[in-house]
């Protein structure tokens, strides 16, 4: 019975891999047990991925020649090469802003769209509220919205049908925090889970890693993912040769304990959790921030 996500994962990957890789991590992201998440969400999320396909792709990746056509045929979860902006994803919007300005366009910052007006089921104008509380009207030929759907539907005039408003008012959003840690180096313990004295003894801690993003599946810590910004692009780090910038990702709800934690306490939590899983040493910490 694949009504819920736990059964969906177990049927495709087995109970042991489900409990190791999927259970705690999925619950960290969404704040809901897998036994309460509908399986159609899972089928959309990982599409046609299976254990067999993952193993076959791992074998193919042992060979260095990767063709463009082969990349396009892969399941999304298994893509190994991609383009990335030199200065990070924000660079895309900086370039977009430059091109709009170069084409005689205007960009108005620190303003909120407070009302969206429809005529014949098409957006005709919007009301815009600036930082001084002054509201003005802006006619539209085209309207692109990036606000959450719940907020968008609530400011449309005339108001959508009641059943539409009821659905959107019930949408639940999960929020996101990143704790940035600047370190002299990493201190990743190898083989620490194996309980083998010789493996521990012969494997010194790693000071660097090749990964962009590491998923922390273990439920013993709250951190969900770790980004190593040096590996996304060295241009994102002021001194990539002598320091490492980590981004620790926490999935939260507005108003919960993590959301309300002071920045210095959140940074301390990040350091202690990364120490706990054998990833860093406290004496390598240089600076931190919370976004």
Instruction: Count all strands and give the number.
Output: 9
Instruction: Estimate percent helicity.
Output: 25-40%
**What is the general shape?**
globular
| Major sheet strand order | 6-7-8-5-9
Provide mean pLDDT, rounded: 88
Rg calculated over all Cα atoms: 23 Å
**Portion in strands:** 15-25%
Q: How is the biggest beta sheet arranged? A: 5 strands, antiparallel
Helix and strand content put the structural class at: alpha+beta
Straight-line distance between termini: 41 Å
Residue stretches low in confidence (pLDDT < 50, at least 5 long) are 194-199
Oligomeric state of the chains present here: single chain
**What is the count of helical runs?**
12
- What is the element string, with H for helices and E for strands? HHHHHHEEEHEHEHEEHEHHE
Q: How is this structure best summarized?
A:
This protein has 291 residues and is α+β, with helices and mostly antiparallel strands. Helices cover 36% and strands 19% of the residues. The chain has twelve helices and nine strands.
Keywords:
single chain, 291 residues, alpha+beta, 5-stranded antiparallel β-sheet, 4-stranded mixed β-sheet, 12 helices, 36% helix, 19% strand
């Amino acid at each position: 019975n694949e009504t819920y996500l736990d059964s969906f994962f177990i049927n495709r990957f087995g109970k042991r891999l489900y409990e190791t890789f999927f259970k705690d991590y999925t619950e960290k992201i969404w704040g809901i047990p897998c036994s309460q998440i509908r399986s159609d969400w899972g089928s959309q999320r990982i599409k046609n991925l299976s254990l067999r396909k993952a193993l076959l792709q791992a074998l193919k990746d042992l060979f260095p020649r990767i063709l463009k056509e082969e990349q396009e045929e892969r399941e999304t979860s298994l893509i190994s090469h991609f383009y990335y902006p030199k200065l990070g994803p924000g660079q895309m919007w900086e370039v977009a802003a430059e091109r709009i300005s170069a084409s005689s366009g205007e960009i108005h910052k620190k303003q909120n769209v407070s009302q969206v007006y429809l005529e014949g089921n098409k957006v005709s104008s919007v009301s815009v509220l600036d930082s001084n509380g002054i509201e003005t009207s802006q006619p539209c030929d085209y309207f692109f919205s990036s606000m959450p759907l719940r907020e968008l539907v609530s400011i449309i005039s005339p108001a959508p049908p009641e059943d539409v408003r009821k659905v959107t008012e019930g949408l639940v959003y999960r929020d996101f925090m990143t704790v940035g840690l600047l370190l002299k180096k990493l201190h990743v313990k190898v083989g620490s889970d194996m309980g083998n004295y010789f493996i521990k003894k012969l494997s010194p801690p790693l000071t660097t890693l090749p990964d962009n993003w590491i998923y922390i599946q273990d439920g013993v810590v709250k951190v969900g993912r770790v980004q190593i910004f040096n590996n996304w692009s060295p241009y994102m780090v002021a001194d990539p040769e002598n320091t490492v910038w980590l981004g620790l990702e926490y999935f939260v709800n507005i108003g919960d304990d993590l959301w309300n934690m002071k920045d210095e306490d959140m940074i301390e939590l990040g350091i202690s959790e990364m120490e706990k899983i054998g990833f860093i040493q406290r004496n390598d910490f240089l600076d931190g921030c919370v976004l």
